[in-house]
Design brief:
single chain; alpha/beta; Rossmann fold; GMP Synthetase, Chain A, domain 3; 8-stranded mixed beta sheet; 3-stranded mixed beta sheet; 11 strands; globular
Length: 290
């Protein structure tokens, strides 16, 4: 059995979560087109007949504005410690900038670093892709390989997976083969509900949302589980946006989230949601796991 922990790092919105989902073949890590959708480490597990790969999806590394932002960066930095492989993910459709150089410095001393140029399906100029690959090779000279992929279309994902597998050592299985996501059920509910809101709200306030789900143990029985979901917004004006006319936005988000949560938890789920105003939640370390 070949096993290993693979850390996936990069700037915000380079497609890390979409890449992780493509690698495991399921939508386990939440995604959207907005930056900072992933707010904590997410461990998604790919199990095969002779391997187990544990992919650690991380928040995008960025210039912090709040205490919470600093914690997002720390979650990404921590994910580089004690891992077997590092996937340094870059946006192949964009030029190499200062943020990319910072990522390069961060991974230079790590072992088994693969440079992944994602979103290459949106670039028609092969010469431009080759130029960016050379630039990445210059700033990460010890990378084991530079691969051009598209997590969205699946292009070269199997090749990347093969390269990672060839870098792993034989070892004990880290998780039961039935486990696909190393995350508490309450955290799963929080993350999936937040993803649903982000997708429905589009450009309105995706980065202003914190979501916390707590299971109501008194009501949960057998195969039906109850979760109280609290949505935090920073401004009074945001609350009616999240609620929607006559509660339409919360109802739509809850309906969308419930379907996916029931699949992940393999049980019926009842979600009771409410919106609260806390202008300081992003600066409060108590909310670091949101």
């Amino acid at each position: 059995m070949y096993t290993g922990i693979i850390s996936v790092v990069g700037r915000p919105n380079v497609g890390k979560s979409t890449l992780v989902n493509a690698m495991v073949g399921k939508d386990l890590s939440i995604t959207s087109k907005h930056s900072h959708t992933t707010r904590s480490q997410v461990r998604a597990i790919a199990n095969g007949d002779d391997y187990q790969m544990v992919f650690v999806d991380t928040p995008g590394i960025h210039k912090p504005k709040f205490t919470n932002s600093e914690q997002l960066n720390e979650a990404a930095y921590d994910a580089l410690e004690g891992v077997d492989v590092v996937l340094a993910v870059f946006d192949g459709s964009s030029s190499i900038g200062k943020g990319d150089s910072f990522i390069a410095e961060l991974v230079q001393e790590r072992k088994n670093v693969f440079v992944v140029m994602n979103k290459c399906d949106s670039v028609s100029d092969i010469g431009l892709l080759a130029k960016r690959a050379r630039e990445l090779s210059d700033i990460i000279p010890d990378a084991k390989a530079i691969l051009m992929v598209s997590a969205f279309t699946g292009k070269n994902i199997s090749l990347l997976k093969k390269e990672i597998l060839n870098s792993l050592e034989p070892g004990p299985q880290l998780f039961d083969a039935q486990i696909e996501l190393d995350m508490s059920h309450e955290k799963i509910v929080s993350e999936v509900f937040r993803e649903s809101l982000i997708r429905l709200l589009k450009e309105e306030l995706p980065q202003e949302l914190g979501v916390l789900a707590i299971e109501n143990e008194e009501l949960s029985r057998g195969d039906q589980r109850y979760f109280d979901v609290k949505i935090l917004v920073t401004r009074k004006s945001h609350k009616p946006i999240v609620i929607g006319k006559s509660g339409s936005m919360l109802e739509a988000a809850g309906s969308r989230a419930r379907k996916r949560i029931q699949t992940l938890l393999n049980s019926r789920v009842v979600l009771k949601s409410k919106v609260e105003i806390d202008e300081n939640w992003q600066s409060n370390p108590h909310y670091g796991d949101y």
